[in-house]
Design brief:
With about 425 residues, the protein is an all-alpha fold. The protein is about 70% helix and about 0% strand.
Length: about 425
């Protein structure tokens, strides 16, 4: 019961945060005409996400859980959910190919997969029959073929392609679409792009826009760990990491590393400090070095928290830079050189030039850190003192070379006068 309740809390809280805008209508075929039977039943999976259990503060109707429902219902819902998730991933990849890669979407013919699902749902009441085993094998074969085709297409999609699609999609990608993408990347063969895409999708799933280019967390780290474990269980994800003592120590070390990254970012007074140290490259390399252990729920939760805090800190530093100088100076100094690596580290697209144009300019006394204000004041005082000193020199000091020339001129004039006499 506890596992289901945790998942219910996640779905309902995401719904309360208005993150469940539906972008995929599985009740319509590609030509726009309604479909019937099991395709309609698949669309009900998405509908269940948006509905709360009546009389409950948090709820999610229809989450597969073998401990709470008959085995046949559990596998039936899991099969429907898997096909539904693949169709959502298909929709997203087609959108990326069309809008960002400017290519014709390589749409997969999912008819055989839907027919296999239809057959499985017809015979799944008798799990001991030969027909059930045959239908289950056929469905597994078709979904694996679909997964493989999607993986080939996804290999051509960059992390920035996926990020821009998620950020610019209208209406906004629903949480059920994000969970479908998370399931796809979590269960795909490991690669660095796959890990980075999973990191991006989970960051978007567990956070929301807070205005002024900042994001905020929806849950605490401990809550996210619980939600991730529940998601993995419902995705039937194979553990890519060990739970032995050595791996636990490594997990704690990685989490501590993320904590150090956050401390370094939030401790910077000016953006230049992070650039000089190669901070954003270091964060990227640190994530890449984790390998498959990155998918450990505790590490994923730490990464999400780190992404949000680095992104928000970057916005704060850009705002501070603008307050100390002017947008043109900052733009000339940095331009677009660091946008990509910063966006990768923060898990969201961040363009310095755009931030400079769009962020409100804060009063220096309200927004700048006190140490930065003191530094600015000290610098200004030094400049005023230097200017005052130069002014005094101009008024009261005599140039020694000018004095020597004047004396020589007087001597020469006197000599000519006496010689003439």
């Amino acid at each position: 019961m506890h596992k289901l309740n945790v998942f219910e809390d996640l779905i309902e809280e995401l719904r309360d945060e208005n993150l469940l805008e539906t972008v995929i209508d599985l009740s319509k075929a590609k030509d726009g005409r309604p479909v019937s039977g099991d395709a309609m039943e698949m669309s009900a999976v998405g509908a269940r996400v948006d509905s709360a259990i009546s009389g409950s503060e948090h709820g999610f109707d229809g989450v597969p859980d073998p401990e709470l429902e008959p085995e046949s219902d559990f596998y039936r819902k899991r099969a429907i959910d898997e096909v539904s998730s693949l169709q959502m991933v298909e929709h997203v990849l087609s959108g990326i190919e069309r809008e960002h890669m400017k290519t014709v979407p390589g749409s997969y013919d999912d008819l055989e997969a839907k027919k296999a699902l239809h057959r499985f749902l017809q015979v799944q009441t008798d799990s001991a029959s030969a027909e059930y085993a045959e239908a289950e094998f056929k469905l597994m074969h078709e979904t694996e073929a679909w997964n493989t085709a999607l993986s080939r297409r996804d290999a051509k999609v960059t992390v920035s392609n996926l990020r821009r699609f998620c950020e610019n999609s209208r209406p906004v990608l629903s949480s059920q679409a994000l969970m479908a993408l998370g399931r796809f990347y979590r269960n795909a063969p490991y690669s660095e792009p796959t890990r980075a895409k999973f990191d991006l999708i989970m960051t978007r799933l567990f956070t929301r826009d807070a205005g002024d280019e900042r994001r905020r967390m929806l849950f605490s780290r401990d809550e996210m760990v619980g939600h991730l474990k529940t998601l993995y269980a419902n995705w039937a994800s194979i553990a890519l990491y060990s739970t032995d003592e050595t791996s636990s120590l490594r997990t704690r070390a990685v989490v501590a590393g993320f904590k150090d990254c956050v401390a370094e970012a939030e401790g910077a007074l000016i953006f230049e400090q992070l650039i000089r140290k190669g901070f954003f490259d270091t964060v990227h390399e640190f994530k890449e070095a984790t390998g498959e252990i990155f998918f450990t729920p505790e590490i994923v939760a730490a990464s999400i928290d780190t992404n949000v805090r680095i992104g928000n800190t970057f916005v704060d530093l850009v705002q501070a830079e603008r307050a100390m100088s002017n947008p043109e100076t900052v733009e000339r100094r940095y331009g677009f050189a660091y946008d990509q690596i910063i966006s990768d580290a923060a898990g969201k697209t961040l363009h310095m030039v755009e931030l400079l144009k769009n962020l409100p300019e804060p009063p220096i006394s309200d927004e700048l850190p006190s140490t930065m204000i003191a530094s600015v004041d000290t610098s200004n005082a030094a400049k005023k003192k230097s200017a005052s000193h130069l002014e005094r020199r101009g008024l009261f000091e005599v140039n020694k070379w000018l004095l020597a020339a004047t004396i020589l001129a007087i001597i020469a004039t006197g000599s000519v006068y006496f010689w003439s006499s």
